[in-house]
Give the backbone structure.
Amino acid sequence: MENVILEGGRGRFIGYLLALTMLIIFLLVFPQIASSYGIVLVTEVFIYAIFALSLNLLLGYAGLPSLGHSAFFGVSGYTIAILVTKGGMTNFWLCLLAALLVAAMLGFVFGFLAIRTFGIFFLMLTFALAQFVWAVIWSWRSLTQGDDGLPGIIRSGLVFPISIQSDINFYYFVLFFLALSMFLLYRICHSPFGYVLQGIRESETRMQVLGYHTWKYKYVSFILAGVFGGLAGSLKAYQDGFVSPLYANVFTSGMALLMCLTGGTRVFIGPAIGAVVIWLIRGIVSSYTENWSLVLGVIFIFVVMFARHGIGGYLIQLDRMINRARTKS
């Protein structure tokens, strides 16, 4: 029996490794065989995968459902736009660093206010804070140009040391940031800090009894999630060459929340799976009708009512069932 279990475990590991290798090869080769539209679309999926993964640090690991994550996305995007179009900065790394610092400071302030609440109160307060950011962007026309947005963001300069002006190079660049973000977030979620967050999610009172200062852990996770959300917003601004108040709109937060729920909040890679599925559905449906958001709304209702584990959760359950069947045989 032990030999069967060991063989089954080794076989699963080899299968996972083979699947991962094939995925990496496909992602590296994809720009060479895809159309320009396909490259732009997949790059956008990468960016929203980072955004959804950052939200899941709060939602899936700390148990904090946020509707204000778009604030970090929007503020970082506008920081890039203002520095490039009004400040004349062309150094990508300096602009990105500034955008991430602004996102961190916003998380520092908003987290101090939001973490004092919980449950539906946390959800509504983060929603209100994001709407505040959206209102400032919409009304401060001298700086943000209001609902007209800020065009003219140019991907100039060299990175690594290649130019990111072409869509193909930018695709690889964003893929690098996705891999880096997944690595860092995985390390965070599977560190002692991440395990404490999971304990807080399951029972904050119990963690407090054990001596953990839960408020500090949630506060730090809020700031970290904001920084990674800001990274996604910065990359999106460079991809579009344009930012608008939609970046900070609650709809953007809702999209990230839907990606997390669709892919599975208790599975690390779940939000990335959700980003792929949602963006594919959006791309297909939007080619037939302008009411694609209505279809996403229906999907959201279905997921909440009938698929609470998400795609990732059900894939894990299926894998366990197959493994148990192999062990018994």
